[in-house]
Amino acid sequence: MFAGDLRLFVRHHWALAARAISARGCEREASGTKMVHNGAMASKGAIRQSVTLPMKLAMSVRTMARRERTSANRMLVELLEEGIEARKKKEEAFYDLARRFRAATDPKEAERLGGELGRMVFGA
After folding, report:
1. Would 9 be classed as within a structural domain?
2. DSSP character for 70?
3. Dist. CA 46–CA 103, nearest whole Å
4. 11 lies in a domain?
5. What is the number of domains present in the chain?
6. Among residues 42, 45, 60, 94, which one has the fewest Cβ atoms lying within 10 Å of its Cβ?
7. Range of 5's domain?
8. How many CB atoms are closer than 10 A to CB 113?
9. In a domain, 6, yes or no
């Protein structure tokens, strides 16, 4: 196969995959491959990133991926997206609690909120 033929082949298959995804969101191609797009995945470019994981963590990711019938790479992406979202929610909860603490006029309420802030920051 020549370079031009290869480019045309790849472009054609990407177009088929894009049509299948946009038509139903999840489609089986003739090859038996299940194409899935959940909207949470980045549609604008991807960056190849090499990450070294501890063995126990890597095995957990692979096990989860097998259970969900997906690749370990996709599982890592989903876990990272969920982790980032959880971190943002935790940060929002902290700032909300800090605003309530500053706005509290009752000393007992301020003490309770201060205790909650302390547990959030220092754990316990």
Report:
1. yes
2. S
3. 44
4. yes
5. 1
6. 45
7. 1-37
8. 19
9. yes
